[in-house]
């Protein structure tokens, strides 16, 4: 496996405003923005290869956890 070199930062990002923006979000135009980790946003989960199960789409608010069979990506 090779390191990922793709970046898609919005203009003037990441800027680590006030030295407090250590997390990232994908904004509606698809670009990345750094923000404070205390700001609540949706999240992305990574699924292990070979562990296939149906994914059910939900409209519930993010809970901060991943569904069974998934695990959260490290920061």
Automatic annotation (TrEMBL):
Pfam family, one: Lectin_C
PROSITE patterns linked: C_TYPE_LECTIN_1, C_TYPE_LECTIN_2
Protein name: Macrophage mannose receptor 1
Keywords: Disulfide bond, Receptor
InterPro entries, per database record: C-type_lectin-like, C-type_lectin-like/link_sf, C-type_lectin/snaclec_domain, C-type_lectin_CS, CTDL_fold
Organism, scientific name: Elysia marginata
Boundaries of every C-type lectin domain copy: 1-46
Stored Gene3D superfamilies: Mannose-Binding Protein A, subunit A
């Amino acid at each position: 496996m090779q390191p990922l070199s793709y970046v898609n930062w919005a203009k003037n990002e990441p800027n680590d405003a006030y030295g407090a923006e250590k997390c990232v979000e994908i904004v509606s135009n698809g670009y990345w923005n750094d923000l404070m980790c205390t700001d609540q946003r949706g999240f992305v989960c990574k699924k292990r290869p070979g562990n296939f199960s149906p994914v059910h789409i939900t409209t519930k608010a993010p809970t901060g956890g991943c569904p069974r069979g998934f695990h959260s990506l490290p920061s």
